[in-house]
Every structure is written in C-alpha cells, then in structure tokens.
Amino acid sequence: MKTETRQAIVALTIPTPDGVFVARYSKDGLCRLDFPGKTADAEASRRIPPEVRHWHSLTGLVLKTALKGRPIGELPPLDLKAGTVFQQKVWKCLKRIRTGQTWTYGEVAEAIGSKTAFRAVGGACGANPIPVLVPCHRVLAANQRLGGFSGGLEWKKLLLQREGISM
C-alpha cells in the first residue's frame, strides 16, 4: 500500500534543555516531531487554531517528561495516517512499550501477528514520524544490540539511559 502524504497545517518549536524540537500538526493532530537540528522551518507568526494551541501545550509537556526518562501521561491526538497500514500497526504497538522497558524487533513483529517481519518492523521504526512519544527508541535488535534510530544512535542511547536502561 502506498504511503499517504499528510500536510502539516502548522509547525511550532518546543524548546527543551536538549535543544529545540519542531512539532508539526495536521488538522487531525500531531503528525511529526523533529529532533533539534533536523529542521528549521517552524512557523512564527501564522494564526494558530485553538485546538493546535492545546495540542502543542500538551506535546511540550509530554516531550519534556519523556526527555527526563519519566512515563508520560495523556498524548495529544496523533495523526499517523501518513504511514502504511503495516507501519501504523507497528507504531500502535510501540505505544505499548512502557518507560524503562525494551522489546526486540522480533518481539514487536510477533506482537502484531507477523513474527517473521522483524526487518519490516525495523523499517517502520525508522519511518516513525513521532519519535520519543511513539517510543521506537525502546526497540532493540537481537541480543540487545541498539540497531538504528532516526534521531541517531546518540539520541537512542541517551533516551534509554534516562529511562534506566544501560547499553
């Protein structure tokens, strides 16, 4: 199935002690979260719809909580429709991995009913548009090896370390 392209209606910055993230919102919710230094085209003066203001406030709170290695509460609405059906199934499963816990790509594949699709799970993790909040950093390769991460391995190591997982 072909990936659907979703247009963000607004992109807003989230300053954190770890740098400035950029959150992008569609009419349906948070559709992308970019690591510091990955993008620089956030909106400054465009009129922001009230629901996006609320979502952005919530996104900032949960992101800062997650960056401290703590369990997050309520997420803003997530618009994950840009992914394929398979990717969406993987991303939904990733949200079940609790703070301080890791799964392997194979365990995620088995959890979604496709136990031989561990490589495709890795691809879906790499395509995750909302890293940190949809915690693909908690997915490891076999034998507890790091595997890849869209934000870079230093970010993955840092996030895991803050959650009490030593690599």
Summarize this structure as a short list of keywords or feature phrases.
Arc Repressor Mutant, subunit A, 167 residues, 5 helices, alpha+beta, 32% helix, disordered N terminus, two-stranded parallel ribbon, 2 domains
Describe this structure in words.
- It is a single chain.
- Residues 1-5 have low confidence and may be disordered.
- The chain has two domains: 10-67; 85-162, Arc Repressor Mutant, subunit A (Orthogonal Bundle), CATH 1.10.10.10.
- 32% of the residues lie in helices and 15% in strands.
- The protein is globular and about 50 Å long.
- The strands form two sheets. It has a three-stranded antiparallel β-sheet, covered by helices on one side. A two-stranded parallel sheet has the order 4-5.
- The longest helix is centred in the middle third of the chain and has 18 residues, at 50-67.
- By secondary structure, it is an alpha+beta fold.
Describe the structure concisely for a colleague.
With 167 residues, the chain is an alpha+beta fold. The protein has helices at 50-67, 85-94, 105-111, 118-126, 153-162, and strands spanning 10-16, 19-26, 29-34, 103-104, 139-140.
In CATH, the topology of the largest domain is named Arc Repressor Mutant, subunit A
What class do helices, strands and sheet pairing give? alpha+beta
How many runs of DSSP E, i.e. beta strands? 5
**Average pLDDT number:** 90
- Biggest sheet layout: 3 strands, antiparallel
Distance between the termini: 36 Å
Helix percent band:
25-40%
How are helices and strands ordered from N to C? Answer: EEEHHEHHEH
CATH class division of the largest domain = Mainly Alpha
Strand content: 5-15%
CATH architecture of the largest domain: Orthogonal Bundle
Helix tally?
5
